[in-house]
Amino acid sequence: MRILIVDDNDFALALLASALRRAGHEVDQAHNGDEAIEWVRRGVHRLIISDWDMPLMDGLTLCRKVRSMSTNYIYFMLLTAHDSSNDIVEGLSAGADDFIVKPFKPAELLLRVRTGERLLSLEMRDVTIFSMAKLAESRDKETGQHLERVRSYSRMLARQLMEHSPYRDQIDDAFVRLIHETSPLHDIGKVGIPDSILLKPGKLTPEEFEVMQTHTVLGQETLDAALDKYPDAQFLRFARDIVACHHERFDGTGYPNGLSGQDIPLCARIVAVADVYDALTSKRIYKPALTHEKATEMIASSSGSHFDPEIVRAFLAIAGEFEISQRELADLVPEVCLAPPVGDAGLLTGSLSTSFASGQP
Amino acid sequence: MPSQHETLSDAGGEAEFQHSESEAAVFAPAQLLGRCMDDYHFAADLLKMFTDRLPQMLAEVGDALDLDDNATAERKAHFLKGSAGDLAAPRLFQACARLEAALRRKELSQRVPLLADVRHEVEVFLRAHAQSMEALAQCAEVPV
User: Fold this and answer.
1) ipTM above 0.95, yes or no
2) What is the pTM of this model?
3) CA separation (Å) from B114 to A164, B13, B100, B102, B119?
4) Contacts of A106 in chain B (CB under 8 A)
5) How far apart are CA A331 and CA A137, in angstroms?
């Protein structure tokens, strides 16, 4: 991480810079508040460590100025001999995130910097996921609250599986949180699908359907590229698995790779149920919404073929919660002006295999 | 030879080793070495630089007091205090802290005796420089 350190004392700067560089950080130095503000304007630092007592502009004033500038959030640590509760309140009120008492211990400094990095990465993760999901959504506005519902259903299923299933050893709170955060990305690859296919109101031709199916691979490639750069980003790996595999089927007849059973990542098997339930119970320009009961019946009948039986079991156990959530997050779609379904009638009457093999994914 | 936790202290104007890093230590080599993440050469360079600059930093405090510029004197005393703290010189740190506090409280009658204390601690620290370097090397287990 690139860190800005601010202190009027060369010895303090030297010690800080040395400790941070040895830990692998890139360090820039400022000897006073004005120099620091110049650095902040360049927008290259996400973390600042500043002395509190400095001539001309003290650390508190610098912190307030940084907070008033329109930049990305900067984690601000005050280096200080002020450690009374009043001082801490004053520092926090100015917008400081953390304090290090002088003279500092390098091990403590580096741990606190790591805490700051962790918080910043959480913020970055949320922003990244939100931006990517919105990008995908912007290409297909018809789906309305689809992303919100899928994330809600996915979390409900994961929680149920965590408590009552053979998968309880694979699912913990972090898994539930990750699936809630990353499931909205499941169709991110649709940004690469031409409008003529993505927005086509009627049934897709076999060739068009083939193109549509590539959204899983397009999304996977995008996230793989990000993973190459940030291989430790667990949320990217999790999202990649969902994006790549949420159209795989338990019996191996899905796409893009024809994976089957446990070879399909668990998160993708969960999102598959959530995604299909939402598709069935949502009104589309080419089809009306199915009732909750009908959708439940169709999912149950696809246990072991399209879906993992354990996940279907979990779904059936909490189907009532799905129905409530579906109502709470329902789209406000006008009752008129729906074009007659040109194709994809399988969604209404046929099996899931028929409907999803021939129509919109 | 001193162990890793031995430090220098002042006794009757002569620096000598003390077997704990008490508040009264003139120089605490293990502290400085720890702050430098066990990089002896970095610590030695800093210590030498501090020793070289110390007379000038002390003079700046005295000059400000001579001019009755208490605000500047307080700032300079604060700077010297911070440097002494960073360089693991507890006695000098404490003397500077007392002077800075008195100036902040505007206890002007205390200025002269407290500046004299600071001056004394600077002299002790400078006199002990060679021993401090040796203690640092011993602490880092570097052949002297």
Assistant:
1) no
2) 0.59
3) 73, 18, 9, 8, 9
4) 34-35, 37
5) 14
